[in-house]
Amino acid sequence: MEARQGLALDAKAHAFLQNEDFSSAVNCWKEILADPNLMEEFQDEGEGGYGKKEIMWNIALGLYALEKDDACKKLLQKLPLEELDLCEDAQIIVSEVGVNAP
Hints:
By secondary structure, the protein is mainly α. Helix content is 63%, strand content 0%. It contains six helices and no strands. Helix 1 (5-18) packs antiparallel against helix 2 and helix 2 (22-34) packs antiparallel against helix 4 (52-65). The protein is globular and about 40 Å long.
């Protein structure tokens, strides 16, 4: 496996977002989550860390954009939302799919 393959896949997902290809972005992030070797590149290291929680949050936002609210809600319920720094728009999304925002 090439070094930084997970980070490259994350960058690819963000590029898909720029083109509003939410389904492809979600698939990239799901691929990262499913592979422990790729996940090693993402560590929750204190403030500003980018890890599993943030990747799961990105997937949830993609599902929301795809109007898959039930899948988004299920994923958000697995996240420790109080640990994420949610902006006002993010809190609105969380409440729209029926999850209690912190």
